[in-house]
Amino acid sequence: MPDKVAPAERQILPGKPKEVQSVKLKKELGLLDGVAIIVGVIVGAGIFVSPKGVLKSSGSVGLAIVVWVFSGVLSLVGALCYAELGTMIPKSGGDYAYISEAYGGLPAFLYLWVALFILVPTGNAITALTFAQYILQPLWSGCEPPHDAVRLLAAVVTCLLTAINCYNVKWATRVQDVFTGTKIFALIIIIATGLYYFSTNDSVPFSQPMKGTNTEPGYLALAIYSGLFSYSGWNYLNFVTEELKDPYRNLRNAICISLPLITVIYVLVNLAYFAVLSRDDILASNAVAVTFGDKLLGPMSWIMPVFVACSTFGALNGAIFASSRLFFVGARNGHLPNAIALINIQNLTPMPSLIFLCIITLSLLIIQDVYSLINYVSFVEALFTTLSVSGLLWMRHKKPNLERPIRVPTILPIIFLIICVFLVTFPIYITPWEVGIGIIIILSGIPVYLVFIWMPTKPKWLVNSSQKFNTTCAKLFMCIPEEKDD
Q1: What pLDDT is stored for residue 103 in this prediction?
Q2: CA-based angle 451:456:462, to the nearest 5?
Q3: Its family (predicted)?
């Protein structure tokens, strides 16, 4: 896998266009694009469906609101820690780059292994299925759309967004900007209608906000997991650091604009839910926003499934754009086939990485219950986030003189690390099966690393197969390796 692409591959393709000075990823993302990526990836299906999970584990409306605020603050602290990591190690790839720099190749590969086959494609498959479910719902009034129709539409939208990202980075960011605005508009509608209902209704929905509170640490951790699921994606901008204009300023500013904005909106949306729906209504609903719309919007209730579909469409586009860079960087470092680190000479996009991610996502859509995979990866994701932030503290000790354009107060990564350790350890006795499967998935990457990466002398058939695969991809997608600056 880590063998170098044959030099002859540069002669496989026609000469580069004269106007292209070098074949490499371009810095085309400004502050607005950065905000749109963060908001667009975070605000997906989560806020429309996961309030049920937060309320179920926390037990009361009051504690649920506290969890939403805490999850937003925790995400902001984590994002600021990642801002220091992203400017101290200005490489695309996010956690993969930081773990590699702090702890070496094997831990970084294990993160890449889990992200490649479970974390990223599962999240994308869930988002695509959610989009298809809600866009088809109005056509099957009163019943669920057929599973085959949902999977087909999910596959089509995954391929469409992959094609857009392959063709033009600016097209992908414009799609992100438009659908980010759409989903924020949908949340504003929920907030406004909920506020109107609250002001004109005689009932008092918050009379006993702490009734039924569950303070058991394990369930509190699960409630925070559900809240953090709706905030997940706050680190995705770190995947594309190399494509940010003025990354030292725009990375920090995009984080400081996006996370407080999302936290305020999320809390207001949940207050609107609780003002209109009873606790039992929320716990009985699989899509709280749709139940909210059915009760409050009357003949216009169809608009809510459409808004959820738009939200997930934008989230899927942002996730495809950012996560493909993770695998591009992993291949560039020799941890994946070199073909995935090739760049299309016409569009300057990591086309093989995008297509490879698309294929894995499509394969997961075949699984009957792809949603069940989420239960196994929440623990794994929290574990590697803990590892990345611990790496920040370790790098301060290991390389104190390394340039840090953004440096957060030491207390922030320490607090974040302590909370992450709590979130990793306490659910073990509540969901031991999911944690065990997560650990097995991680450990399964060790023999792969030893055979394909670490072993100094590889079988000849493996080297020849890898070179043939790289050459075929270079010809098929009109790609060559990234050119380095002199």
Answers
A1: 92
A2: 55
A3: Belongs to the amino acid-polyamine-organocation (APC) superfamily. L-type amino acid transporter (LAT) (TC 2.A.3.8) family.
